[in-house]
Amino acid sequence: MNTPVALPSPQPLPEGAVRLDDWGVIRALGDDAAKFLHGQLTQDVEHLPSGQARLAGFCSVKGRLMASFVIWRPQPAEVLLACSADLLPAVMKRLAMFVLRAKCKLSDASAELPLWGVAGDRAVKALGDSAPAAPWSEAAMGSGFAIRLPDAVVDGVAVPRLLLVGAEPPAAAPALDMEAWRAFEVHSGVGRIVAATLEQFVPQMVNLELVGGVNFQKGCYPGQEVVARSQYRGTLKRRSLLMSSAAPLAPGMEVFHDADPGQPAGKVVLAGALPGRDAVALVEVKLAALDSGTLHAGAPDGPRLQPGALPYAFPTEPA
Predict the structure, then answer these.
(1) How many helices (H) and strands (E) does the chain have?
(2) CA-to-CA distance for 269 and 211, rounded, in angstroms?
(3) CATH topology of domain 22-112
(4) 3-class SS at 290?
(5) How far is CA 236 from the centre of its chain?
(6) Fewest C-beta atoms under 10 Å: which of 58, 135, 186, 274?
(7) Which residues of the chain have pLDDT under 70?
(8) Given this model, what pLDDT does residue 6 score?
(9) What is the pLDDT of residue 7?
(10) Burial environment of residue 101 by CB neighbours within 10 A (0 to 12, 13 to 18, 19 or more)
(11) Close Cβ partners of 39 (under 8 Å, ≥ 6 residues apart)
(12) The pTM is what?
């Protein structure tokens, strides 16, 4: 009689704080700051209330994302935009091209407002009662801000997350590995555009509208017609899913389907890894490739990707 072999239990989920050196902050300051950004981003900026943060995208005229932001409005004449640091200089330069006569000055506030990621129940609770509790709520904290991000959901366990901007993490919080933070980003289902994925995706391809990053009532912005057409005419045939791999994954890595090895079927949006677990990624992929066969990372014969569960409803038919 064969004795069953006990499989090792996954390591406990890490928690703590990590300096997000791969994030930066753009400050838009002036009486027209919100109005200007309202006409450039996928989000309603003019009606963004104090105490709330939102996701937003900045698209090319072809509807392809040049950046994604976490935005909030600390005061009526100021909007802050957190984004990937490797995109910040080019994005700020492009936005500045359209300011024209608007009363809005754009500046890089990254040095003044360093960003930290905090994850895990104890680490978040160590910040005290002043830390925002509802997703996308924002509150002043010390000389900076705290923004509650959507929970990461790992094997059914919700992991709370906070983005600290210009505020120090609690001294009691242990150091969190950057790869673990990125894995928590993936498990939250919220994609982030980086230099490796510049202008690769229409917002719906990274599920941006599913996580509240696109407002379809706000009016025009660059690429708005393409985004609206994808939403209402059923032209979207690609989405992002959570997938795992025994091999490392990285943003921009191509994904191949075994039935059509001659061309990529998708691309990695964001990737990370938790200690003792397989790498995870948000992978943008053709919906038709999900019907049968297998997906592989990096090459047609590369590591196989295993599907996982997103923490929100995923439309299985084109939008």
Answers:
(1) 5, 16
(2) 15
(3) Alpha-Beta Plaits (3.30.70)
(4) helix
(5) 20
(6) 135
(7) 1-10, 234-235, 314-319
(8) 47
(9) 45
(10) exposed
(11) 219, 220, 221
(12) 0.93
Q: CA–CA separation, 141 vs 168, rounded Å?
A: 9
Residue carrying the six token digits 């014969």 = 301
Task: Give the DSSP per-residue string, 40-104.
Answer: TBSS--TT--TTBEEEEEEE-TTS-EEEEEEEEEEETTEEEEEEETTTHHHHHHHHHTTTTTSS-
Q: Where are the domains of the chain?
A: 22-112, 114-188, 237-307
Query: In angstroms, rounded to a whole number, what is the distance separating the alpha carbons of residues 101 and 91?
Result: 19
Residue 84: partners with Cβ closer than 8 Å, 6 or more residues away: 22, 23, 24, 67, 68, 192, 193, 194, 195
237-307 has the same fold as 22-112: no
The secondary structure of 235-280 as a DSSP string is ---EEEEEEEESS---TT-EEEETTBTTS--EEEEEEEE-TTS-EE
Q: Name the residue type at position 120.
A: G
- Of 201, 199, 189, nearest to 266 by C-alpha is 201
Tell me how crowded residue 2 is: count the other CB atoms within 10 A of its CB: 4
The two three-digit tokens of residue 312, written as one number:
């929100």
List, for residues 267-283, the tens digit of each pLDDT value: 999 999 999 999 999 99
Convert the pLDDT of each residue in 206-256 to its tens digit: 999 999 999 999 989 999 999 998 887 765 789 999 999 999 999 999 999
Q: Both tokens of residue 94?
A: 């492009």
**Residue labelled with tokens 């959901």:** 153
Q: Tell me the CATH number for domain 237-307.
A: 2.40.30.110
User: What single DSSP character describes residue 232?
Assistant: H
